[in-house]
């Protein structure tokens, strides 16, 4: 009788463990980080992003692109829409080059079950070299057409044209920068703490090879 009870207990315990495992679909923190990077930076894994974080990534990707456009046009003080196409093309060039040459690694630095931290080590675009190349090419353009210096829109378009050329050939930075991803358990999914700040830091690291 005792043997039968013991076997029954083992069977029930095994079933309980199996059911618990099936019910917990939360991915490992490093996989969550991979999903976030692939979605925010490489425009991939949008469906998986929703499974992991419970949010639709489409709006996030759109906000990132719009933020880039607004930031760029504002910095050039041209917000009448006259350079929107060029800025959008530059964004596409950035994302294409980032996809081609950048790389990253992830590791858990705080393995707290409910609030882990993942460190993302990123080799982004080498903007130091890009800026140097841009400066040289812009000087050449101004020398060929001095009127560029007197026309703000003409100057902006010349700069965007040079930016396109240099970004398309940008190399990956030898120096890795680190971005921390703080996660919070949300039932069988994860929540990114300070998600907007994290996304901005990630974007900056991959697009410029720097951190704030």
Could you give the topology of this structure?
Blueprint: H1 2-23, H2 29-40, H3 46-53, H4 57-75, H5 84-101, E1 103-110, E2 117-123, H6 127-144, H7 152-167, E3 177-186, E4 189-192, H8 195-208
Antiparallel strand pairs: 1-2, 2-3, 3-4
Task: Please state how the strands of the largest beta sheet are arranged side by side.
Answer: 1-2-3-4
Secondary structural class:
alpha+beta
Structural Rg? 24 Å
Order of helices and strands: HHHHHEEHHEEH
Mean pLDDT: 86
**Proportion in β-strands:** 5-15%
Number of strands: 4
Domain module count: 1
Uncertain parts: 1-23
Question: What summary fits the major beta sheet?
Answer: 4 strands, antiparallel
Count, helices: 8
